[in-house]
Write a structure and sequence with these properties.
elongated, alpha+beta, four-stranded antiparallel sheet, MetI-like fold
């Protein structure tokens, strides 16, 4: 649009015209929340890395090599010199020079600039199953040289690749948050919806139960429930049990939100008109009331996922949650419990950095969704 002087009018957030759909209004506000958009991109990359974890992980996360215990991270060099001295694009990493301290009898590593190991994109690797059922023999990044490890984030006390374990652990830690929130969402919608829609004695009982659960300290409750799990259960069963436990504890906040919205909406004119028109209770709830605050439910769910991730990480770090051979961020952080290990290998704290980035991104995304939930707010 041109102004009277012929210059283009400045463009800013569009004001609602009253003809857009509710979702269009929410998106119109959300896309102007830059921090939430960036957080959404970060989360999309994290979940994509969780989906394609086997392809992105340069090595086997369970393979150990006693020759490279606490080996330091390698740096990728993109340019190399050809025989005539000219620079060419040839990614490589330096090898290790190993020395043994005669007094402490401890092996120490140093980067050897004379050893160069070329890297290959989409190079051949050992056969593996992508997502557990797709056979593949190529990985995103491989190293040339028989028996030469690629340790871009270093190795742990057993010589296992920290980067591969971090990528594989992303799948478990992030999926616990999603699955837990889906279960909490289902429980919160049903219990909170019944409490707010019917009211009376049912509402009184439900609210007293919620208040009792919220008055119990969260971490001791998690620890008690997790400690009650049998130790002879398979790792996959323990994974689902931890998810269910987190869901049974985390549904109360969402139930409160849903109850408040039902109490506010059930007296609205359009709900009363639908009831007088003969609409059933299910029709009133799912066709008339739920769509009116679906964006609020999404915002509340997005803010609940970080709490689930922190809960799983805390339980696993304390030894009461997921255990090896399952790999999660909490299980990886068990390696950092030893102060000597952290002082010798500070790269063992990379799972904590990944958790901080994921939790902050989810919180910023939830804030953006919450601000966009009311499209007519100024």
């Amino acid at each position: 649009m041109l102004t009277r002087s012929g210059d283009a009018a400045p463009r800013g957030p569009r004001r609602p015209t009253g003809t857009e759909s509710p979702w269009a209004l929410v998106w119109g506000r959300f896309r102007h929340h830059r921090l939430a958009l960036v957080s959404g991109v970060i989360l999309a990359l994290l979940y994509l890395s969780a989906i394609f974890a086997e392809f992105l992980a340069p090595g086997d996360p369970q393979a150990y090599n006693a020759r490279y215990t606490f080996a330091p991270p390698q740096s990728i060099h993109l340019l190399d010199r050809d025989e005539d001295g000219s620079l060419v694009f040839r990614p490589y990493v330096h090898g290790y020079a190993v020395t043994v301290d005669p007094e402490a009898m401890r092996r120490t590593f140093a980067i050897d600039p004379d050893k160069k190991h070329p890297l290959r994109l989409l190079g051949r690797s050992e056969p593996y199953l992508l997502m557990g059922f797709i056979p593949m023999q190529r990985k995103l990044l491989t190293i040339e040289g028989q028996g030469t490890p690629l340790l871009l984030l270093g190795a742990d006390r057993l010589g296992r690749d920290v980067l591969s374990r971090l990528i594989i652990g992303t799948r478990v830690s992030l999926s616990v948050g999603l699955v837990g929130v889906v279960l909490s969402l289902a429980i919160g919608l049903v219990v909170g919806g019944l409490s707010g829609y019917h009211g009376g004695l049912l509402d009184l009982v439900v609210q007293r139960v919620i208040e009792f659960l919220r008055s119990v300290p969260t971490i001791p409750l998690w620890m008690g429930l997790a400690a009650a799990l049998p130790r002879d259960w398979p790792p996959l069963t323990i994974y689902f049990a931890i998810t269910v436990i987190l869901s049974l504890v985390g549904w109360t906040e969402l139930a409160r939100v849903v109850r408040g919205r039902f109490l506010a909406l059930k007296t609205e004119d359009y709900v009363t008109a639908a009831r007088l028109d003969g609409a059933s209770d299910l029709s009133l709830v799912f066709r008339h009331m739920m769509p009116a605050f679906s964006s609020h439910i999404i915002a509340a769910a997005s803010l609940a996922i970080p709490a689930m991730i922190l809960a799983e990480t805390s339980l696993s770090f304390l030894g009461l949650g997921l255990q090896a051979p399952i790999i999660s961020w909490g299980v990886l952080l068990q390696e950092a419990q030893n102060l000597r290990s952290v002082a010798t290998a500070p790269w063992l704290l990379w799972p904590a950095a990944a958790m901080i980035v994921a939790v902050l991104a989810m919180n910023f995304l939830g804030d953006g969704l919450r601000d966009a939930a009311d499209p007519y707010a100024t």
